[in-house]
Specification:
about 375 residues, alpha+beta, six-stranded antiparallel beta sheet, five-stranded antiparallel beta sheet
Length: about 375
């Protein structure tokens, strides 16, 4: 080993690999594809499935970081940097072997002390650059989300309301329409390369600021524009539901229930019901109109969802997924994280024979 080589930390090696993500990602995940600022593929296994849940940042913000939104949060194949991706893809998760490979790849095997110091300086600069780019990207995404939200209209008598009615959710019965849901006829859909109608939901931080938006693309071929009524379904695209922005810890405030205050100011002891998706949460509202209900956007976000200190128990709205499935494991992690945060956690599930509460509402058995 060359003198001074031990001075190169694992973080510095990872930072240098991250800078080369645009080259490394296609090499490590050859069955993936470039999509905007990301290289995306099905999963850490890189098999062709038609879905692209694993995304490697290769062009903006935190270059080199990756997340598999279809994996269990906290698992080794959920997220990481380029060094961890090398370890998982090439060496069965062996970080030591990945570090040795990285040193060879970066030309550090026989580096002299002067080169070591230059490498360390470059790694620090790369880290600082990545931090600045990440903050700029967050600001940009918040701005785009706000513009999308601001340009949407209220849900009443729109295709978005008809879509939810088709899922058994009747706001006439509930007596009001949630302000967190809107409609836009012209939301960009990357998969189709054009604009699509969509239900738009706001993703809010506890302080009331907009963190991002969630889009549900709609098929309005059965909608009568003149009569403002008709049959509306979810669009037939691979990713009909997508979020925009950085929503960690935030939620979609679906239903206020009996307490009409903001989430931050709810009465002490008020239980907060948390669903993964919009339709499931509103299905519970149909049965429990007095309940305070929020959607966590994604199952992986529910564990870190921030609720006010004075709130009562959090009630996680579960689904009847197969035992030992990724969804069940992710829900268990969400329970553990909320408990670690000092919350009392309760669970509710639909009866056997129904996948979720929306299926129960519609009488649709598995």
């Amino acid at each position: 080993m060359a003198r001074g080589q031990a001075d190169i930390s694992v973080r510095e090696i990872a930072a240098m690999l991250n800078e080369r993500a645009a080259t490394l990602a296609p090499r490590l995940l050859p069955h993936g594809r470039r999509a905007g600022g990301f290289w995306e593929t099905s999963s850490i296994d890189d098999v062709k499935t038609g879905k692209y849940s694993l995304k490697v940042n290769v062009g903006r913000g935190r270059i080199g970081l990756w997340t598999d939104f279809g994996a269990d949060q906290g698992s080794a194949d959920y997220s990481g940097d380029m060094l961890s991706l090398v370890a998982l893809r090439e060496y069965g998760g062996d970080l030591g072997k990945a570090i040795a490979w990285a040193k060879s790849f970066l030309g550090l095997d026989d580096a002299d002390p002067a080169r070591i110091e230059r490498v360390r300086r470059e790694a620090r600069e790369a880290d600082a650059k990545a931090d600045a780019a990440a903050e700029a990207e967050k600001a940009k995404m918040r701005s785009r989300a706000y513009a999308l939200w601001r340009g949407a209209i209220g849900l009443h008598r729109t295709p978005a309301e008809a879509y939810l009615r088709g899922r058994g959710i009747d706001f006439a019965q509930l007596g009001r329409v949630p302000g967190a849901l809107r409609y836009r006829p012209d939301v960009w859909c990357r998969e189709r390369g054009g604009k699509f109608p969509a239900m738009v939901a706001c993703i809010m931080a506890l302080d009331g600021s907009l963190m991002g938006v969630h889009r549900t693309y709609l098929d309005i071929s059965g909608w009568d524009h003149a009569a403002r009524q008709g049959v509306v379904t979810k669009a037939a695209v691979a990713d009909a539901k997508l979020s925009m922005g950085y929503y960690q810890g935030g939620c979609i405030p679906l239903w206020k229930g009996a307490c009409r205050k903001t989430l931050r100011e709810i009465d002490a002891g008020t239980p907060i019901y948390i669903s993964e998706g919009i339709e499931d949460g509103l299905s519970v509202a149909m049965a429990k109109p007095d309940a305070r209900i929020v959607a966590g956007v994604a199952l992986a976000n529910i564990g870190g969802l921030v609720v006010p200190e004075q709130a009562g128990p959090v009630v996680l709205i579960g689904q009847n997924d197969p035992l030992n499935s990724k969804a069940v494991n992710a829900l268990e992690r969400a329970v553990a994280r909320q408990q670690e945060a000092g919350r009392k956690v309760q669970l509710m599930f639909p009866p056997d024979g129904y996948k979720d509460f929306n299926d129960l509402l519609m009488g649709k058995r598995k």
